[in-house]
């Protein structure tokens, strides 16, 4: 069972990496959704969280000043591992999270609700989640609204995929390579690394 789980996780990560959205710039299409979520649910924090191998990285982050955390501290990874929504009314009373540093320290998470978001091939990329510093209960109507937001995130993933993938071959098109090159240059400049590129004309 453990081997199957590892194999499943490797497939999920391969799908996530192939989308090329990790460590990209914030985009209004996702930031709009987290802003709406904070107003809709009256919470201070909303995230579109992507679960990498050892970290969770925020494609959109409203209410936090950080862009990522260790996966070991992530609530969202539980939703990804279970392939289902995760609702935590009071993290300080939940044995899974009460010793979590994000519960015991800033931002002092109490309430958490996360809904998995899937990539076009069906693999789970992460979640859209809402967080409060006070315990609360998620109503059924609220849950359905969160599910609607998750489906909008998935729609955006499909749009990105269609814009960067050749429909006949299923491989990255010129636009995708250009975006990946721009992003690699941006990250190399930020980290002061040297980026080598081999351009071959035909």
From TrEMBL:
Keyword Nucleotidyltransferase applies: no
Coiled-coil intervals, chain numbering: none
Transmembrane segments: none
Keywords assigned by UniProt, alphabetized: Plasmid
Glycoprotein found in the keyword field: no
Cross-referenced SUPFAM superfamilies: GAF domain-like (SSF55781)
Domain GAF: start-end pairs: 25-164
InterPro entries per the UniProt record, alphabetical: GAF, GAF-like_dom_sf
Name of the protein in question: GAF domain-containing protein
Lineage: Bacteria, Pseudomonadati, Pseudomonadota, Gammaproteobacteria, Enterobacterales
